[in-house]
Amino acid sequence: MKYNLRRLKTALLVLGTVVVTLVSSAFVDDYFEVSKNLDIFSTLYREVNMYYVDSTDPGKLMRKGIDSMLENLDPYTNYIPESDIEDYRFMTTGQYGGIGALIRQHGDYIQISDPYEGYPAQLADLRAGDVILEIDGRSAKGKKTDEVSRALKGSPNTDVKLLIRREGEENPILKTITRKEIKVKSVPYASRIGDNIGYIRLSSFTENASGEVGDALKRLKQEGELKGVILDLRGNPGGLLNEAVNISNLFVERGQEIVSTRGKIREMDKSYKAQNNPLDPQLPVAVLVNSGSASASEIVSGSLQDLDRAVVVGQRTFGKGLVQTTRPLSYNAQLKITTAKYYIPSGRCIQALDYSHRNEDGSVGKIADSLTHEFKTKAGRTVRDGGGILPDLIAESDKLSNIAQSLLSKNLIFDYATRYRRNHPDIPAARDFRLGDADFADFEAFLKDKDYDYSTRSEKTLEELRKIADEEAYLTAVKTEYEALKAKLSHDKQNDLRKNKAEILELLQEEIASRYYYQVGRIEAALQHDPQLNEASNLLRDATRYSGILKGTIRAEAK
After folding, report:
1. pTM, rounded to two decimals
2. What is the pLDDT of residue 245?
3. What gap in Å lies between CA 247 and CA 296, rounded to an integer?
């Protein structure tokens, strides 16, 4: 017996030595490869800077090298130099020092596109459509949005002088604006839809997003009985993980796991559970999502789906299930690096693309439906992985017509709203504001000397066919038929404009409402013609259907 025990100890010692040797060997090999390649890179970098025929910018050259290296990994692993730290802080906190306005390119200049209500730009009567000519006496001509953005930002209580050009004004206007600490709300809008359905728009997961959602829900409940609440995560790109956990916790019991992370390093394997008592564990919930809902949005919608706590309505989400953490670098720079993947309560991973297995051309493909796996919700409903969250109730959004896309891309909707604001001192409340036939006729007149031509899909396909026929020497033989077909397919812009009148009026109403009532006005105007919102609202009013979908006894189909 002693002999066997001695043999066992010897075997374990030998096995342990082998394991340690293998691990140490792998570590030494990795360390050697890292050291060798760093040495090669530093000597190459020095030689290029010393001997290249033209002068080089060492900082730019190194930044290009770093960015190209990290692009090989995934889109979310990024180098953040000290100069960009302020922008990164805004992404996580929603706070920055500035004037409080969105800007956009407008020819050679930058123009204001959306001032935030209650902040310096709006309080100084800076309006959407105003073109920035000078900043603190220096010309803004030829500047890009990032350059102007940096110039507008600064320490709170400092002044910035803007010389602007406003449509309808003969002379430029000088504005002196005092910068303030800007905190962009995570919940820009919350209200009742009808008498008894609450609606909360969550645009980001910055610091205290869960507090804003909780406060909005409390206020809606205080206004009267609710049959349900709609949490709108459409277009929400995500943000802080703890805020996603805390928002889910508003509806699920304390102690319930919301999400877990798993990475290469064991320290990245974590389980995130609800830490507090829920605000309302019984209130029916519908979560609106689309292809722009990502990361933290997918944690909330996916966890509530897996726990059978909410019906998810809309389109499949983006599929971003990669966890990023920041690591400090020298000279106050940081590295944002992917360290793990998200897994929601059923055990499925949110991530859609596998960046570790690229195609020969460097592209990354999505997982085929045939390769996805089945998982079960808490109540036993079948859900699948394969990337993103597939809604329980598919509700497609209306696709914009070609002419509407052209009018938007060429800023003609925006420019008309600027002119409308100048000619109309006030309008009714955003939810009641409607444009009529006379307004549409005025818009048509506004477009008369504007370029908004576009190619339909049929026209693009026909042009491609013409090129191929020409290359293969068939064009001469079919030229008559080609010209006849081209004439038939040629679109009539005026006819297209009138055919899509209702859609164009809706877009105009949203943009014009934002000129008077800012972000809240834009949202309220858009909600008046929102088929996905109507689908979610009708579902919450039908308790039998809502409950049946969560139990799996009723097939979820849009009505």
Report:
1. 0.85
2. 97
3. 10
